[in-house]
Q: What sequence folds into this?
């Protein structure tokens, strides 16, 4: 086998492609997260609802989304649902990521609410509050502190999962890298750098999460 002649100048020569892809990855991930949060809150609260039908629907959504591979979901949304709703690859990717991530956020919300002592709800109800008033004013603010760190961690997972949207032609870092490799044939250099970029994004967010966790822990103590 012949030796491989490394040439990392391809990175500097195409830096605009990597910058554009990185920004697009963060943009798509951020929008998907903003859509996934309300989805997660609705179905997370549905999981602990006193209404059996709501609990059943919420549980079915969570279990299905957690059991279906993200890649399959993205392909189905783009090629099936997207044909009826006229979704392009951009919004098909965002909706797919949001629906998928919403199921995991629902579990985070559920565990956060159930982590609040039941006495808090009972005390609020005994003071004259309705169930939803107690949930909105007493339980959810306390649950928010508990779910914030895992919610931030879910954003990190979302950034890594976003690499799969290249299969439906959504422009982001991975797709830009694929296109660059096809024209330069510098797969080792390109994919090594792309791996470093993903690591840099997720590691930075991890450090931010640690700071948030320390501040929340210090306030609670």
A:
């Amino acid at each position: 086998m012949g030796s491989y002649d490394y040439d990392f100048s391809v990175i500097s020569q195409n830096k605009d492609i990597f910058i554009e892809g990185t920004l697009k990855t963060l943009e798509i991930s951020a929008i998907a997260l903003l859509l996934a949060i309300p989805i997660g809150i609705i179905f997370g609260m549905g999981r602990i609802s006193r209404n059996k039908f709501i609990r059943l629907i919420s549980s079915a959504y969570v279990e299905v989304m957690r059991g279906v591979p993200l890649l399959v979901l993205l392909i189905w949304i783009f090629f099936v649902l997207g044909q009826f709703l006229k979704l392009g690859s951009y919004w098909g990717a965002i909706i797919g990521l949001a629906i998928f991530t919403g199921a995991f956020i629902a579990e985070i919300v559920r565990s956060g609410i159930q982590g609040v002592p039941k006495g808090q709800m009972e005390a609020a109800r005994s003071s004259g509050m309705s169930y939803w008033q107690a949930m909105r004013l007493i339980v959810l603010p306390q649950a928010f502190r508990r779910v914030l760190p895992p919610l931030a961690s879910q954003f990190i997972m979302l950034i890594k999962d976003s690499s799969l949207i290249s299969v439906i032609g959504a422009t982001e870092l991975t797709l830009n890298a694929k296109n660059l490799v096809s024209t330069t044939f510098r797969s080792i250099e390109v994919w090594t750098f792309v791996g470093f970029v993903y690591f840099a994004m997720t590691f930075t967010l991890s450090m931010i999460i640690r700071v948030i966790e320390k501040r929340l822990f210090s306030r609670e103590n």
